[in-house]
Every structure is written in C-alpha cells, then in structure tokens.
Amino acid sequence: MANIFDLFNPTSAKAMNAPLEDMVQKFSHFMDRGYEETTTSAHAGEIISNAISKHAQRIRGEHFERFQNLLTDGSDLLTKFNTDVRKESLPKEFAEYLKDSGERMILTLDTLRKRGDIFITHESEGCPPVLHYKYETIMDGKDFSYPCNYFLLKILPPDDCSIDETKRPFIIIDPRAGHGPGIGGFKTDSQVGVALRTGHPVYFIAFRREPEPGQYLSYITRAEAEFVREIIRRHPQAPHPVVIGNCQGGWATLLLTASNPDLTGPVVINGSPVATWAGVVGENPMRYLGGICGGTWIPMFLSDIGGGIFDGAHLVQNFELLNPSRTLFRKYTDLYSQIDKGDHNFLEFEKWWGGFFLMTEAEIRWIVEQLFVGNRIVKNEARIEPGRHVDLKAIKAPIIVFASHGDNITPPQQALNWIIETYADVSEIKIRGQKIIYIVHDQIGHLGIFVSSKIAQREHSEVNTTLETIEALAPGLYEMVIEDYEGEMGSHQFTVSFKEKNFDDIRELDDGIDDEQAFAAVARFSEVQAQAYEMFMRPVVKALMTQGAAELSRALHPQRVSRSLVSSHNPAMRLIQSAACSLETTRKPVVNNPFVALEEFWFKGMEQTIDMMRDSRDMAVETLFHSVWNTPWTRHFGRTHETRRTLKNPAELRNLPEVRAALLNINRGGFTEAVIRMLILLAENRGTVRRDRLERAQHLLENCLPFSSLSADQRAMIIQQQTLIATYEPEQAILTLPILLKDENARLMASKLIRYVPGPMKEMTPRTLSMLVRFHDVLRQPHFESDIFENPLETIEGLNFTDLLMKQAAK
Q: What is the pLDDT of residue 490?
C-alpha cells in the first residue's frame, strides 16, 4: 500500500500509474457490467419471445382447428335449413324451438333458484362439510390450548363396506383455498370411497367457515398433529396412518410431517403447489398473478376491509377467471341445454363451490409471503412460527406425489421441483432413507385429482394398494408407472412398476429455471410494498372500517350476490318456481330441431371467443410480467431472494455420517442383512421394480422369520443401511456376502430366496440373470435351472431353517 508521500511525489511510479490504473479498472468494470446487462436483456428478450411464440402457436393451432370445425358445423346447418325451407317446415320448427327454449330457460332459472336456496341454507348452517358419507366428530381444535377452526371426523362406512381396524388408517386433508372441506369425499368414487372399499379406516380433517380469533397457521399444524396422535391411539395394532393432502392441503401435510417427522406413515400429495415459481414459459399463466397484482399488500388490504378477516370468495373469483369460458359461460349453457337430464350433479357441485370460507390476516399473509410469492419452503427459509423453520429434509415418511399435465392450477413443475431444490441428488435421498414416488397423469384436471373421477380412479386405487408394499422399496426416487391390459371377461387389470429416476428426469418436465429469477424480484418488491402499506395505508384503512362495514363487504361480494339474488327470497323467483312445477307434467323436449343445433353452434362460437380472449390475456400478462420483472435492474434487485439453497456436492455426500457408518458395517450382519442387500442390488441392477415382486418382498419381510421378528423401524434401518452399501460400494457389497453368510444352509436358503422374489426367469432381464449368477458364484452355490414359485421360508425345510436360526440368535 502506498503512503501519502508516494502518491504526491512526482517522481514516484505509483503516483503516475495509480490514476491511470484506476481509470483502466473502472472502464473494464464498466464494460463487463454493460456486457452482463446486455446479455441479461437479451436473455429476457428470449424468454419474452419464447412466451409470445408459444402462446401464438397454441392460439393459432388450437383455435384454427376449432374454427374449421365451426365452419363445418355451420355448413351442415345451412344444408339442414335449406332442406327444411324446401319442405316448408321451418316456421313450425322455429315455433317449436321458441316454446322449447322458453321452457328450458324457466327450468334453468329454477335450478339457479335451488342453488340460491342451497347457498343460503348452507351459509346459515355454517357451511358444514359436503361429504357424501356420514361421519362423526372425534376431536375439535377449538378446545386446544392453541385454538383453531379445524376438527377431526371419522367416516362411517356404508353397509356394503367392511372395515379392518388393524389396517393402516387413511387421513385426508382438504384444501382451505376459498372453498370448504369435502372435495376429497365428494362422491362415491372419491378418495374416501376408494379407501373404504379396500377396508381401511378413514378419517377426514375438516374446518369451519370462520377461523378462531387470533388463529395462526402454526395452530393448525399443531392441531393436525394432535389428530394424528389420536388416530394412532385408536389403532394400536395398525401401522402409522397414511396422510393424503389435496392441493393446499398437500403443502399443509408437508408442514405437518416436517414438524413431526416420526408421526405419520406414507404421505400422498395430490396436485399441491410447493415450488410455486416453477412452470413452463408460455403455458402456466397463474403463477404470474402475484407479480402483476402487487404481491402481499393486496391480501393485507382485503383483510383490513374485512375487519381482519380475509374472504375466501376472492380466491374462488380468481379460479373462475382462470378459465372463464367454462366457469362463467359454458357451465350455465350446458345446464340450459341439458336441463332435461336433471340438475342433481350441477347442484351437488355448486354446493361445495359456493361455500366460501374465511381466514385470518395472519394465515393468508403467511401463505402468500412464505409460499406463493416468497417460495420460502423450497429455499428452506420458511418459518412456521418464530424460531421454528420448516425443512423438508426432515420428513422421514415415504412421499407419493400425484401431478398432471392437465392441471392448469398446479402444473407438474410446481408439484415436483421442490425435490431437486431440496436434495443434492438421488444419493442424498437414499442417504436420508427417504422414498419419493411420483406419478404424472397426461390429462386430468385439477379438481379431478381430488374427486377421483373415472379418469383418475385407476391411479387412486393403485396408489392405495401400493401403500401396503411400500416398506419393501429401497430408498430412492421412483416414478410409478401404471399399465393396463385386458383381463378375463374383458375387464381391465393393471400392472404397476416403479422405475428408478434421477433429477434429470424431473428437470425434463421443465424448460429450465432461468425464467424464475424474475420471481425473486417480485418477492423482494412485495416485501417493500407490504412494509409501505403497513406504515402509511393500514392505519387509515383500519380507522375507516367497522365490523358492520366489513360484514357488508362480504355480503356484497359478487360470488354471494349472484347466488342470493336468484334464491326464493326474491319474490320474482317464486313465479319461476310455479312455472317450473307446471312444466314437470307438460314438458316435451323437441327432437332434431335445426334451431337447437343453431343454438349449440352459437354456444361453441361464444366459447371459442371467450377462450381466444383468455389466451390473449394470458399472453399479455406473461409478456408484461417478464417485461417488468426480467430487466437487468429488477433481476439485480431480486438477487438476494433467489432460490439458492446450499446443497452438498456428491463428494461431500459420501462423507456424511450415515454413509460412513453404513460402509463401516459392510462386513457386519447375518442372514437378514445379506438377503436384503442382494434384493436391493437386484432392484438397482434392473432399474425398475414391479409391484408383484414388491409384494413378494413385502410378504417376506412382514410374515416370515427371521425378518418378521424385527420391528418396522428396524427393518427400515437395515434397508437404508444396505441401500447405502449397495450404492457406494456395490462391488464390495457382493464380495463380502460370504462373510455375512458363513453357514452353508444359510447360503442355500438365501440363494433360493433371491430366486423366488424376482419371479419367473423368463420375465428377468439379462442383467438380472447375470447378477443372480454372480451371487451364486460368490456364495459357491450351484447355478439354477428352474423357477421357484413357492416361498422357501414357508416350506418344511424353510421352517426348520428359521427355527434353527432363531435358536442360534437366542443363544
């Protein structure tokens, strides 16, 4: 470092060169910064160009095809009208159509009247769950030390269902996203119905419309944990319960299991948004709403004008605007066109859809700040309460994720990307003894996942039955693949397999994470806006609002008004009711009327017009979002809030205590460890596990000595340890098998078991056969020539062997 005399000494080299060097460095830094900003701007331009291109291509392709179909329908209609004109029957058909249309309008209005009456009655009753099944209340969260509006229901099975109390209980958590509970048990083909038909006890975690005063989200998590403990107490002979979380109930389930890692059995997450910034450019417009609408301050403001309560009707309104042609137009035109088929399904669904639930300001703010705008769960920064953060790595229970490409609310990227953001790679999943299984459907929509419609009934049924065998699966990341084939009498049967996957398989579902950097700027700016609102606007808004005004704002919400105004409380609707009653005996629908076809033609045209407006809106929203938040300045502004969770590299993973402890025990163990190790090596060698093989392995572990003498936790620990050995030292894992199997009888029995579990040799891959030969060579056993179809441990020879083995263990 130069001193002051050197700097001002004319003969000093430092004095002459320092200013010049400083100028050169600054200029170089300026050029680098300019190049970086130019590159960033160009990259943002590529994202915008890609978004516009995808939207335009979809609009052009989809709407052009629909327009062509409309032209074809129009041409057919003209032909029909020309024919009827020549027959001079058109006036008569038009008169019949007018009469029929008027009658259908009356019946449709009467259905809307019924919907209004159901809405008012449902509201007056406090919006109880809309479950298809009878139930009884077991526990109520309002009685806890941290009171909340959640309560535990036990589903009472119908007469044709027999429940086995020793089977694993099912717990279903429905979303609290504006609507009330019940969608998971909405129909007989729902998640509740699927579980009941397989003999499992089923419980349902529901919630009341109004939250308890001062309720926080952490209170709900505490209550759910108490509910699970009560269910475990009621079923002491059953394994720990399965917890199924739907949509927002999914991330709530993750909060529950991360906060209480030893409390639950397998966890099923259906259509749940966890990595909320994720998505594909040009395809998932809903994720941009936070950046366009302003972030956290909006729900804060809506809560303030609601007297500290956030109205869930606002969320329902957002859902409806996502696909307005369906929710605001086609839903009603279909009712009008098909009113003679009845209105039961319409009213059944509308009872749930029209039940609007409330949240405290603290709850909705946590959801927006920590999840949808902040994305903090993925970044490992979310805190469920002060000093208690949420780490998804703490979850020990197996996790099954159900997503769909047809889900426009929770795309597969939001349901799955948390995995690659939480773990370094699949090796870390194995090290932690975790099992993560995902299944991605091609077309089912968001609500269809929970209702378990026919299109998803196969998936729910197979997931439920697969949960029985999941214990035998080695830790890792798997995709559940369901393939159907024709069985006897033409009935469909399914084969289920689990294919080992890596993180690249999940990344292939996405188009990269570069577009997510803009969301970091939104998250930071949202915090700034929230602070400014609290300082300057909130005191004024709260001072102007009264409880009466807050209640009036909820009553005047368009979602409620649209139902209340057409109820029987409106005197005009009584005339509609009277007219509809008289039509019950005189109604005769028209048949083959060209004007009915013209009506449907107009409906389709309007639907396409609304869809065109929606697609244009989505393109404009996405373009605006990236134009504002993907600039060099905003990206620099949001760098502190990017998703940058520190993950260990593969070299560091090998040095984790769990791996080192497992490798130190590579020579330790006996018959149990050796058989489990060989089965894991076979599974990793195949890269896929079929459910029938998994079922044989599960039966072996749970029902046959010496495996059945171990507790579930002991078996899980051995499986995890042998998985790490097979992963990090596969060659030594094979060579040390003779050390674990010193006795010749043990080697013979082990060789039979590893031939029995994989099944017939004709179904084995060459790699599996090669691995089996390697085992026999290492253990010095004769090569096999025939299949083994009977469990060796359940034969007389096997029973004698296990009896001897258990006596030796006792000594």
A: 39
Rounded to whole angstroms, the Cα distance separating 379 from 103 reads: 58
Strand partners, 128: none
Range 69-73, long-range pairs (CB < 8 A, 24+ positions): 70/601, 70/604, 70/605, 70/608, 73/597, 73/601, 73/604
Tens-digit pLDDT profile for residues 378-416: 888 888 888 888 899 999 889 999 888 887 788 899 999
Asked if 274 contacts 372 with a C-beta cutoff of 8 angstroms, the reply is: no
- Angle between helix 744-756 and helix 796-810 axes, rounded to 10 deg: 130
Within-domain flag for 672 = yes
Give the side-chain half-sphere CA count within 13 A for 518: 28
Q: Which of 359, 427, 377, 373 is nearest to 655 (CA)?
A: 427
How would residue 548 be classed by pLDDT, with cut points 50, 70 and 90? Answer: very high
How many angstroms separate the Cα of 727 from the Cα of each of 52, 428, 474, 498, 653?
45, 11, 11, 18, 12
Of 29 and 649, more confident: 649
Convert the pLDDT of each residue in 436-487 to its tens digit.
999 888 777 766 666 554 544 555 556 666 676 777 788 899 988 766 544 4
Decide: 347 and 118 in contact? Cβ < 8 Å: yes
**DSSP H helical ranges for 88-205:** 90-124, 191-197
Query: Which one-letter amino acid corresponds to residue 453?
Result: S
User: Does an H or E element contain 642, and which?
Assistant: none
CATH number for 415? 3.40.50.1820
Number of C-beta neighbours around residue 606 at 10 A: 14
Q: Look at residue 749 and tell me if it is in a domain.
A: yes
Strand, helix or coil for residue 227: helix
Looking at 503, 521, 539, which one is the last position of a domain?
A: 521
Q: How far is residue 690's CA from residue 695's CA, in Å, rounded to a whole number?
A: 9
Which residues form the domain of 405?
A: 135-280+364-521
Token pair 């129909």 is found at 187
Nearest alpha carbon to residue 570 among 105, 103, 101, 115: 115
Number of Cβ atoms within 10 Å of the Cβ of 521: 24
Question: Domains in the chain: how many in total?
Answer: 2
Name the pTM for this structure. Answer: 0.86
Q: Mean of the pLDDT values across residues 15-27? A: 55
Strand partners, 500: 478
* Predicted local confidence at residue 455, as pLDDT: 46
Q: Are residues 513 and 662 in the same domain?
A: no
Q: Measured between alpha carbons, how far is 726 from 682 in angstroms, rounded to an integer?
A: 10
CB-side exposure of 9: number of CA atoms within 13 Å? 9
Can you give the length of the chain in residues? 811
- Within 10 Å of residue 528's Cβ, how many Cβ atoms? 13
Query: Cis ω on the peptide bond leading into residue 571 (within 30° of 0)?
Result: no
Q: Are strands 476-486 and 435-441 parallel, antiparallel or unpaired?
A: parallel
Locate 405 and state its tokens.
């490409």
Residue 471 neighbours by CB distance under 10 Å: 20
Are 495 and 691 in contact, with CB atoms under 8 Å apart? yes
- Does a structural domain hold residue 750? yes
In this structure, the strands spanning 309-311 and 267-270 are unpaired
Residues 193-215 have pLDDT tens digits of 777 887 889 999 999 999 999 99
Token digits for 50?
A: 């890609």
Domain closes at, from 506, 521, 536 = 521
621, part of any domain: no
C-alpha to C-alpha distances, 661 to 373, 655, 664, 667, 677, nearest whole angstrom:
41, 10, 5, 12, 16
Per DSSP, helices labelled H in 367-515 are: 412-422, 426-431, 446-451, 454-466, 503-507
Specify the residue for token string 């459910």: 691
* Burial of 653 per CB tally in 10 Å (0-12, 13-18, 19+): buried
Nearest to 269 by CA among 439, 496, 517: 439
pLDDT bracket for residue 187 (50, 70, 90): low
Count of alpha carbons within 13 angstroms of residue 717, beta-carbon side: 8
Which residues, 6+ apart, have CB-to-CB distance to 451 below 8 Å? 183, 186, 187, 189, 190
